[in-house]
TrEMBL record:
The keyword Transferase applies. One of its GO terms (biological process) is L-homocysteine biosynthetic process. Pfam families: Cys_Met_Meta_PP. This is O-acetylhomoserine aminocarboxypropyltransferase/cysteine synthase. Belongs to the trans-sulfuration enzymes family. GO terms for molecular function: cysteine synthase activity; O-acetylhomoserine aminocarboxypropyltransferase activity; pyridoxal phosphate binding. Transmembrane segments: none annotated. It comes from Arcobacter arenosus.
């Protein structure tokens, strides 16, 4: 099936089970077992089925299957938020004494989680340049458990050299984890380019209406083989799990990465997705493809307007030919569509604040991927805790304004920006 068909039908057969056209919400905490043997079989993985909604839920299961198919993966697991998706993906392979290589162009929450919070658990990070991965290989050592990067980064709107990162990771037997939130599963599929694990904040474009927080982790087919080949680095998957009656993950004929998160991290840490949020995401994922096309087309129209406006010093949008990321957008993204984020520079800090305050249609919001257009001044809000040099490294100037282009008529957005800039 093609992606727009998967988005509507994937993971659900209305001729079986519920028989409803719309997937119902299984708003339940627990499940009744047929008898003692049924319960024992479920715990022993001899039979698959729901035990408790922290671990699995039938509504969430449909979303997981649908999302895995959309990303071209073998399996997916929903979790409470994008942040918990990143935490689980990394904690599934790394522990005290290990390190993770992280891109220099990342979401602020990912930076604080990976750099500061994981450090308290003994996991350290080293930063590499994602634009060309020129300093990636030299930083890999025997304790490196993952390479983490964003395909299209938020807020820098930079595109990683996915091919080069994957090539280096494969040569060294290190797992790659790609945050594909901003590009979305509709425009880009990291697994098709050889990435091992994909994470998303489904709170953004997947939801598309700013109505639910969620996260998801998708794994490629064949990770059990990868873990066996690199058994020293990924010994958790080849040695018995004493916390799960000696289970050896690579011996289980189920996608290993998500299985271990479910049986281990979701069981113990418990940041699971609510069934109601899974249901909301099943509604919105149906329109992901057409929404991403519209977000991208409108963003390109607005970016071209900004580029031609004398009050604007520069515009960063990967769909513009002037962008250093233009070629990567053409190479990686569906029809070269570059999603809905734009950033631009005005003359000074005061002008930036005036533009924010004068915009009427744009809401001043620190979110992205909503159907409503959003505007933010990172230096005085999302990135106000950073020092001047950290801001510079993150590519944020005091004069940077970021837009998340929604689904309004782009002409109305242009008129609003025109008056705000005048
Ligand atoms: C928002 C975001 C996250 C965090 O997701 P939440 O659902 O807010 O926890 C992670 N990565 C990227 C790229 C994001 O934009």
């Amino acid at each position: 099936m093609r992606k727009e068909t998967i988005a509507v039908h994937g993971g659900y057969n209305n001729k079986e089970g519920w028989g409803t056209m719309n997937v119902p919400v299984a708003q339940t905490t627990a499940y009744a077992f047929r008898d003692a043997e049924h319960a024992a079989n479920l715990f022993a993985l001899k039979e698959l089925g729901s035990i408790y909604s922290r671990l699995t839920n039938p509504t969430t299961d449909v979303l997981e299957q649908r999302f895995a198919q959309l990303e071209g993966g073998a399996a997916a697991i929903c979790v409470a938020s994008g942040q918990s998706a990143i935490f689980y993906a990394v904690a599934n392979v790394a522990e005290a004494g290990d390190n993770v290589l992280i891109s220099d162009k990342l979401y602020g929450g990912a930076v604080t989680l990976l750099t500061y919070t994981l450090k308290r658990f003994g996991i350290s990070t080293k930063v590499f340049k994602s634009a060309d991965a020129s300093d990636l290989e030299e930083q890999i050592d025997e304790n490196t458990k993952a390479i983490f990067f964003e395909s299209l980064s938020n807020p820098q709107i930079a595109i990683a050299d996915v091919e080069k990162i994957v090539e280096i990771a494969k040569r060294n037997g290190v797992l790659t984890i790609c945050d594909n939130t901003v590009a979305s599963a509709a425009l880009f599929n990291p697994i098709k380019w050889g990435v091992d694990v994909v994470v998303h904040s489904t709170s953004k474009y997947t939801n598309g209406q700013g109505s639910a927080i969620g996260g998801i982790i998708v794994e490629r087919d064949g990770l059990a083989e990868f873990f066996k080949e690199n058994s020293k680095r990924y010994y958790h998957f080849v040695e018995p799990d004493v916390s799960y009656h000696g289970l050896v993950y690579v011996d289980v004929p189920l996608p290993n990465f998500c299985l271990r998160i479910r049986l281990n991290l979701l069981r113990d840490i418990g940041a699971c997705q609510s069934p109601h949020n899974s249901w909301l995401l099943l509604q919105t994922i149906e329109t992901l493809g057409i929404r991403m096309e519209k977000h991208s087309n409108s963003a390109l129209t607005v970016a071209k307007f900004l580029e031609a406006n004398p009050k604007v010093k520069s515009v960063n949008y990967p769909g513009l030919e002037s962008s250093p990321y233009y070629e990567k957008a053409q190479k990686y993204f569906k029809d070269g569509k570059a999603s809905g984020l734009i950033s631009f520079e005005v003359a000074d800090f005061e002008t930036a604040k005036k533009v924010i305050d004068s915009a009427k249609l744009f809401s001043v919001v620190v979110n992205i991927g909503d159907s409503k257009s959003l505007i933010v001044h990172p230096a005085s809000t999302t990135h106000s805790q950073m020092t001047e040099s950290e801001l510079k490294d993150a590519g944020i100037n005091p004069t940077t304004i970021r837009l998340s282009i929604g689904l309004e008529d782009p002409q109305d957005l242009i008129e609003d920006l025109e008056q705000a800039l005048s």
